Amino acid sequence: MPLSELKSLQLKELKMLVYKLYTFSPFYRQKMKGKGVTPEDVQTLEDVTKLPFMTKKDLRDGYPDKLFLAHPREVVRYHASSGTTGKPTIMGYTQNDIQNWSESVARGLVSAGIGTDDVLQVSYTYGLFTGGLGLHYAAERIGAAVVPASTGNTERQIDLIRDMGVTAIAATPSYLLHLGEVAEKMGIDIQRDTKLRMGILGAEPWSQRMRDRIQDRLGIKAIDIYGASELSGPLWCECSEQQGIHVWSDLALVEIIDSATGEHVAPGEKGELVITMLQKEALPIIRYRLGDVTTLDEEVCPCGRAHPRIGRIQGRVDDMIIIRGINVFPSQVEHSLMTNPEVGNEFQIVIDRKGALDTMMVRAELRPEAFGDRVFELDAIKDRITHKLRSTLNVGVTVELVEPGSLPRFEGKAKRVVDKRVL
Amino acid sequence: MSDIGKYRIKQLSIFSENRPSRLGAVAKVLRDGKINILGFSIAEGAGYGVIRVLVDRPEEARDLLTKEGFVVKFTDVLAIQMEDRPGGLFDLTDQMKDINIEYGYGYRSPPYAVLIIRVEDIDKSIEKLIAGGLHLLDNVAFH
């Protein structure tokens, strides 16, 4: 289907969506009224810009299900993502939502070259995190065999890849590199001893350099996949051409905006990704600001598909960091640290990559009043802070106590994250 | 037993993060203040250390270090005189067996040697040690 036809289909869907939300959702109606928009104002696809944006804050404020449009009876699944204040955001799915989500990923897998003969090992976490089940349902939908390995126990994962004839693996790029290193130590050559030929990689930022390294070392094709729990989960990936991520137009509408003005950027320019999910039922998503920076390409892909493509994610508009597939905001670290009277308000987050795995260290300044000569007391303070951070962030973190006044001070916007990762 | 307070020696405890030349920075402040170091040790924690120093003018040393941004605490410790010969430490151990020592360090101060200890209950410990016949140094010997 050419882009023009896809766009008229999108317009039809958008009009229906806006009408439905205005009529049935107090939250969206109020939001639209706040901007002085009614469903009649949406007559062209460009009119989408008249609609209000949605952000993570809306979902947080709507915790747990205030933004849900579907009746609880129609909801068949929940997922959750950790929130900036320790409060998670809850995603609900109707039967249709699960179908469309699976369909979206399934199309991507097919476009990348995965089919019924493939064995896909899903090494994303299964559970509240959307990665595991998202890939699982999609792979089953296209008739590929799934090895639901989830995360952890890398040696066993490698045994499974070899013994089950796994041809593709879905994982974070850093985990796949780690897996490659472990395989080497076990004396297993991924290229020679396994049938692995493809990686569906995402849930954390990575670069072309890292892609080259993965493809060289493991002798596989590394495919970039994108999504977000708010949108359903992992949704879109590159086709076999590896020239951008196809966003299926019948399911989602892409905008790229200047995050300062909220206006669309010029075609091809980079900006903040904004997505409208055209068919989501349980938790509708309109003009959702992802915070990820990328570009949009509406040219027909060499693969022949007209569905527009977004480029590799180039960064964030806010200070969110992604560690081993888990989103972390410095504000979460701040909230957690503030519950410890022994440390001050200044802190620093140091992200690094040891081998192939991301590490996170939080440096906090010890308050003079908390110091009392004994080393075991200091160790106990450190352990307490570490424990609290780990349970808030759901990610491995180490803590370093430093002298007061030793961390950098900022007059303007604080730059608390030092990212030493070479992606 | 009203005068046992004189056996309390004021030790400076300095918090030090694990960073190059922190010790040098402490030593420089003391040198610039013309403060003499009488005893010294470093304890290591998980990624940081505690520098413990006995000096001739503790209040002044604390003020100077604090001004330079160091976190400094006073801790009372005891100084026990030992014979400077093989068995010198062993001779004390019988009288010290009821004392709960948190940490200790020693130095030579010819013709004697000195054992510095931090103990759990300092006043009771002083009484016990003196009753056992040990020679505790008076803080006048330091400050």
Q: In words, what does this structure look like?
A:
The complex is a heterodimer of chains A (423) and B (143). With 423 residues, chain A is of the alpha/beta class. Chain A has two domains: 90-317, ANL, N-terminal domain (Rossmann fold), CATH 3.40.50.12780; 326-419, ANL, C-terminal domain (GMP Synthetase, Chain A, domain 3, 2-Layer Sandwich). Helix content of chain A is 31%, strand content 25%. Chain A has helices at residues 3-24, 26-34, 56-61, 95-112, 130-141, 154-163, 173-185, 190-193, 208-218, 330-338, 375-393, and strands at residues 75-81, 89-94, 119-122, 145-147, 168-171, 198-202, 221-228, 233-237, 245-246, 252-257, 271-277, 288-294, 296-297, 309-310, 315-316, 321-323, 326-328, 343-354, 357-366, 398-402, 417-419. A six-stranded mixed sheet of chain A has the order 4-3-5-6-7-8. Chain A has a four-stranded antiparallel sheet with strand order 10-11-12-15, with no helix packed on it. In chain A, strand 16 (321-323) and strand 17 (326-328) form a beta hairpin. Chain A is globular, with a radius of gyration of 23 Å. Chain B is of the alpha+beta class and 143 residues long. Chain B folds into two domains: 8-75, 2-Layer Sandwich (VC0802-like); 78-141, Alpha-Beta Plaits. Chain B is built from four helices and six strands. Chain B has a six-stranded antiparallel sheet. The mean pLDDT of chain B is 92. Chain A binds chain B through residues 366, 368, 371-375, 378-379, 382, 400-406, and chain B through 11, 13, 15-19, 43-48, 50, 52, 69-71, 73, 75, 102, 118.
Q: Layout of SSEs?
A:
The complex is a heterodimer of chains A (423) and B (143).
Chain A: H1 3-24, H2 26-34, H3 56-61, E1 75-81, E2 89-94, H4 95-112, E3 119-122, H5 130-141, E4 145-147, H6 154-163, E5 168-171, H7 173-185, H8 190-193, E6 198-202, H9 208-218, E7 221-228, E8 233-237, E9 245-246, E10 252-257, E11 271-277, E12 288-294, E13 296-297, E14 309-310, E15 315-316, E16 321-323, E17 326-328, H10 330-338, E18 343-354, E19 357-366, H11 375-393, E20 398-402, E21 417-419
Parallel strand pairs in A: 3-4, 3-5, 5-6, 6-7, 18-21, 19-20
Antiparallel strand pairs in A: 1-2, 7-8, 9-14, 10-11, 11-12, 12-15, 13-14, 16-17, 18-19
Helix pairs in contact in A: 1-2, 4-5, 7-9, 10-11
Chain B: E1 9-17, H1 22-32, E2 37-44, E3 48-55, H2 58-67, E4 71-83, H3 90-96, E5 101-109, E6 112-119, H4 122-131
Antiparallel strand pairs in B: 1-3, 1-4, 2-3, 4-6, 5-6
